[in-house]
Amino acid sequence: MPKFFFRSMAALMVIFLAWSLALPAHADMEKIRQSGTLKVAVYDDLVPFSAGGRGIDIELAEALAKKLGLKLALLPFPAGENLGDDLRNMVWKGHYLGYGPADVLLHVPVDRHLIAENPKVEIFAPYYRDAVQLVRRVATVPSYDGLASLAGKKIGVEKISISAVVLLGEDGGKYREQVRIYPTAAEALAQLQAGALDAVLANRSEIESAVGRDPNYQVHDVSFPRLPRQGWVVGMAVKKDQAELARLLQAASDELTASGELAKIFSKHGVAAIRP
To answer: Which contiguous run of DSSP H or E holds residue 254?
Structure first.
């Protein structure tokens, strides 16, 4: 082969690579439009947001897809060891077992450290602020003035949760003998309602969805040194290069908030829509 042939081929490869890198950001969005479907990843055991095919995040996913003129394809998945695993598996790469990635993942903490540690994703559109709270049975804990009011009482928490970590470590482990651990916060709250527990430490959303405004229970803000006082905000995540999709989802989320539709979704599940 003449040398000029190889030089020409090399030049064409350089031109093609430059062209592919210069493709507009809406190229992936065009693929989504052509498919007619928005793939949304949701955690598969996160009451009241997504569990058993129901929840706030599932209805939010439906509303977002409708706003974008697309059908919805849900990708429920179990939480990984850490949020970085979830972002890799469900947003920018896909799981080695073959599922994912989705177009967007819901219920992602809008946290500057998480954002800095995951440069391949865009985290945006905050839609809820959650926090750890305490709910007590009025019949067995008639008054509350801090955790000391729960001396000798049975307190339920979910295993492998923020609530369990902070309560078990509080005041040098002072409350460990009183703590009862359950597979989920929902089960702990069910035991509270059954009279087997005196109090439960869980997320605000979990407590509200379980006990609502039942006067037999009182809910309190709690403060722990290792927890942010204002709780944490959750939003969405897409691949970093999906700029148009992020813009469209942000606009759709803003519209759902402004119209009151988002608040109605939360209310349907017994949760107050706390604005970030």
So the answer is: helix 243-259
